[in-house]
Each structure stands twice: as C-alpha cells, then as structure tokens.
Write a structure and sequence with these properties.
alpha/beta; five-stranded mixed barrel; about 25% helix; about 30% strand; globular
Length: about 475
C-alpha cells in the first residue's frame, strides 16, 4: 500500500514583538538570523527535509511577508513550495484549516506536519524520531501534538497532561490541556512528571482534522472551504478569498479542536526546543562564552556575566553587568534586566500609543525588488540607500510632491524617466522631476546600489502612484 505524503505546513504570518527592537511587525522574528547564518524560517524548512516521506512545504503567510518568505526559501534552494496568503489574521485554526483543504485538493489525503516558523530545535535526530512516532499515531486517526519535557516551572507556556506511556517514544493519550499556570502550579506540574509544555506543533491526517473541525468548529470549516474555493492564483502565491476568510472566527487550534476531540494524542519531545518567546529564552538556547554571555555582533564585554548582547550596526561595549540584555539596531537600543524579558511587549505598546515608527518598522525596509535604508532626513529632504536585486525592477510610478536624484554607487541601472530610457553606471546620476513617470531596473548580474535624494513638501511612502508593477502591488 502506498504511504500518504507528509506535508510540512509552516505558519509564518506572525508579527511577534517580544524580541523588539530586532523583531518588528514589518520584519518579524521568523525572518531573523538569530541562531546562525540562516533565519528561523529557513532553519524550520531545512529541519524537515531529512524526514522520511516528506513532501514540498506549504507555507501560510500574510500579504506583507509573501516576498520575504519566498526570497528566503529561494536562498536555501527551495523552489517548489506552495504559499497560501491570508487576507487578514484569523489565528491558527483557520490558517491550518485552509492549508488542510488546499492539501487535500492537491494530494491523496496527506499527513500534515504543522510547525511554527520561529521555533528553535537543537537535536534534529530526536525531532525526526518524534515525528516518526507521530506519523504512526496520525495514520491510525489520532490528532497528535508534541509535548516538551519541561526544563523548569515555566509560566509562559500552556501545559499538556498526558497518560503514562506504556512504551518510550510512543504517542500518549492527552488527558487535558491546561492554560498558562502561576508559578506555584507550574512547580507542581513539573514535579508530577505527567505534564509537558505545549509546543504548538501538530501532526494529523488532513481529512481527520477537517472531520474534527466540522464537529467542533463548523463555522471555521465553512468559511475556510469557501476561501479556498474562491482563492486566486497570483504568480507563485495563492490568495485566499478575503470576504469568505473574514467570516471565520478568530480562534486557535487548541480551543477549536484539540481541547474538544477525544482523539488527541501527544508525543513527548526532548530535543532542545524553544519558541524563542523573549530575549531571555533566546539566551537559553544561544551559544555562550566562558562567562555565560551570549554575544552576537561587534561587542566587547568586561566583567559581565549571564548577559545577552546583540549588535547589528556598531560596536557595543559593557562593563560589570549581570543578567542584562543589550539589543542594538540602527534606530533603537534596548537595555533591560533579562528577568523582565516578558515586559518588552508592554514597551512596544507604549511606542504604538506614541505612534513611533520604530514600533513596527526598521530603518531598512525590504521590498520584492530589494531593499531601501533611510540613512538621513531633514526638513524637505530624505536620503535613502537603495539595493536592487539582479533582474529586479521597481514599479513604473510617479509622485505628486517630491523630486528624486539618483546616484549609482555600484552596478548598472536601467532608467525610465518620462519618455526617455537609458543606462547609468557607477558614479553617474539622474534627476526625476515632480510628477514625471519613472522606473528603475537592474539589468545586470550583480546587485545595483544607489543613493536616492528626495526633496519636496511631502516625502511619505503613500505618495506613490503605481502605473505598472510586475509584483502585483496596487
């Protein structure tokens, strides 16, 4: 009998703020390179590639992240992934439901390995063995979750209470899901030996999940079925229908299905797992020096212990610190006691109330054609460093309120300036007057770098009238 394909469903639409200022809504943590040369998303995809019977990944993402996710997959040589685009966030139950419906339409009742895109797992072999055990249980009709052996009485996780296993490594029947406890209760859970951290990873057959969804959350299933039926193909993406998807309740898979089904099973996982939910938890899984400091970037520490230092743009120095996190970016600096790492979210809330752009956007902004970095600004002017990928092109556009000067630093630029079209190379420049239709393209094989000087009465990004765009942006 031919075995069912195993499809990794990777949820990468989150916009976590607990790792601010590095993780922001415009560029959240799943795309950051926190633990090595690859991003957390790339590590997640690479982690499953060695699993027996694994198929091409299916990503569920948001509109804002589609090009970032696609580019990061391309960087690691993954060209065959499908990507469903959520028109708005509706939590994990609808996201997984849409993925299950899509996968069931394309395959013969596949198994789905549902993963977050921003977790860390150190022991790849232990993870593979746990997945093999989960496959066996899911093949028989169980809905399997992965429970993490608790290392401490953590109050930031939900817990799973499972029946004692008759055989090591085998699936255990789930007795109950427990909300995040207080410290005293968490200590009792750890002492009992029957409670596990809820990892938020799952494995089940697509048809079985949809059967349980129809039984326990039929409104979610109804909305998602319609959203998939009316979905539109857009280049390499599949856009779920907005009107239909919006009708789905905003609900997590635990509440919608896992806490209600009588077929919930759990496979215990002891593989160095972390959801990297704070700077303190990143410190837990990061490599450390002889003084137990986790350091990334250009940093010099003297008489410091148990610190987390992450620098991105300049030298970071520290003297005589204990249990302190220092996180430096081009436009913000965070210094805090790691015991209060969970309070970062409160800080971001204050920034949002103050309408500070640093709350959601980095100075460097990524676009499907490359990126730009706002390196200077003042009254009636702004300076940007623009990088255009080989073969990429900015939209044909015009501005009502600003003129632009472009100076090529390296590479070759193909310029559309009104009714003229010409090439510029290193140290050459051009001027785009207000109201003139223009475009910029990199016809070469190396990145194009240029400096853009904007001048005018209004320099906001919403002063862009796109006339043509190969990436389908409006």
């Amino acid at each position: 009998m031919k075995s069912s394909p195993l499809i990794p469903v990777i949820l990468c639409g989150g916009s976590g703020t607990r790792l601010w200022p590095l993780s922001r809504e415009g560029y959240p943590k799943q795309f950051l390179r926190l633990l090595g040369q690859e991003s957390l998303l790339q590590q997640t995809v690479q982690r499953v590639q060695s699993i027996k019977g694994i198929d091409a990944p299916l990503l569920v993402s948001g509109e804002a992240y589609r090009f970032i996710a696609a580019e990061q997959l391309r960087e690691i040589g993954v060209e065959n992934a499908d990507m469903l685009l959520e028109p708005m966030r509706r939590n994990t139950a609808p996201a997984i439901a849409a993925a299950a419906i899509h996968a069931l339409n394309a395959h013969d009742d596949p198994l789905l390995l549902v993963l977050a895109s921003d977790h860390a797992i150190k022991d790849q072999e232990a993870f593979r063995i746990a997945v093999d055990s989960a496959v066996q249980a899911a093949t028989s009709g169980d809905l399997v979750t992965f429970g993490i052996h608790p290392q401490s009485p953590e109050t930031g996780y939900g817990y799973i209470r499972a029946a004692a296993s008759t055989e090591a490594g085998q699936a255990q029947h789930v007795l109950e899901f427990v909300e995040k406890p207080n410290l005293a209760l968490a200590e009792k859970y750890v002492e009992s030996g029957n409670y596990y951290w809820n990892s938020g990873m799952f494995l089940f057959r697509a048809s079985r999940f949809l059967e349980e969804l129809e039984l326990h959350a039929p409104d979610v299933l109804r909305a998602c079925r319609q959203a998939v039926v009316q979905a539109k193909k857009d280049t390499d993406f599949i856009r779920l229908d907005s009107a239909a998807y919006q009708q789905s309740p905003d609900i997590a898979i635990d509440y919608a299905v896992m806490e209600k089904t009588d077929r919930a099973a759990m496979v215990a996982l002891d593989a160095g797992w972390s959801d990297i939910g704070s700077w303190a938890s990143l410190w837990d899984v990061a490599d450390k020096d002889q003084d137990n400091n986790a350091v990334r970037g250009d940093a010099l520490l003297q008489d410091c212990q148990d610190c987390m230092v992450h620098g991105t743009n300049r030298l970071v120095t520290a003297v005589g610190l204990r249990n302190i996190a220092i996180i430096e970016t081009a436009d913000a600096l965070l210094v805090m006691n790691t015991d209060q790492a969970q309070d970062t979210k409160k800080l971001v809330s204050q920034l949002l109330k103050s309408e500070r752009p640093e709350a959601t956007q980095h100075r460097q902004v990524f676009r499907p054609w490359g990126s730009y970095d706002s390196i200077g600004n003042g009254e009636r002017f702004q300076v940007k460093r623009i990088i255009v990928k080989p073969g990429a092109k900015l939209s044909l556009q015009m501005h009502h309120h600003r003129a632009e000067h472009w100076v090529v630093v390296s590479g070759t630029a193909k310029i559309t300036n009104g009714d003229q079209e010409y090439l510029l190379s290193e140290n050459q420049s051009t001027y785009i007057p207000i109201g003139v239709v223009h475009s910029l393209e990199n016809p070469g094989k190396i990145p194009l770098e240029l400096i853009e000087i904007q001048s005018g009465g209004y320099l906001g990004e919403d002063d862009i009238v796109r006339l043509e765009d190969r990436y389908g942006r409006t």
